[in-house]
Predict the structure.
Amino acid sequence: SAVISQKPSRDICQRGTSLTIQCQVDSQVTMMFWYRQQPGQSLTLIATANQGSEATYESGFVIDKFPISRPNLTFSTLTVSNMSPEDSSIYLCSQSGTAYNEQFFGPGTRLTVL
Amino acid sequence: AQSVAQPEDQVNVAEGNPLTVKCTYSVSGNPYLFWYVQYPNRGLQFLLKYITGDNLVKGSYGFEAEFNKSQTSFHLKKPSALVSDSALYFCAVRYNAGNMLTFGGGTRLMVKP
């Protein structure tokens, strides 16, 4: 299975600030995904991060709020900008599987916004 | 659009009893189905998948799931539950050659001693 690490593992932030979450995978992958898991909820896909092109955002998520970088095939960052308490969630990154293969997930970043 | 439903928010079972966590999916093309487990303060761990072939698939920690095309279901099962199986379980679907996983709402499994 893949090894995916995320930093930070958790953070408590003030309203109006921004936080950048880093995701590192142990093998080169074409696509990485960022998910949000709000308290007591399921996972919602924020965006797909493609190396060498702009990220593709899902409905309800915009680049200004969640800018993503993908500088190489093993690394991606997600920034949560101008945070509000509603952004308090677990943010997970995932590496792409093929259609036949499972996706692997990082341990998540638990964000609390005060 | 692809979707998957987990009709039960929580399932309670006594240790040693069989357990079932239900999952149904919407019909659109050929579904690839997955089960994941999330322990407290942990990321998602892959349990098992159905791609093609035998409808009964076996996965990690003694779990298995049966793909039922006529009922569009992919229920997760285990013959004998352990207290350590208590966690949040997610069913997910991916269609054909697409890459996006769509998750169900999750089912919390509580195994009582």
